[in-house]
Amino acid sequence: MSLMNWTDSLSVNIREIDDQHKKLVGILNELHDAMKAGQGAKMTGNVLTELIKYVGTHFATEEKYFAQYAYPDTVKHKAEHDDLTKKALDLQKQFQDGKPVLTVELLNFLKNWLTNHIMGTDKKYSPYLNSKGLV
Ligand SMILES: [Fe+2]
Ligand SMILES: [Fe+2]
Question: What is the pTM of this model?
Answer without folding.
Answer: 0.94
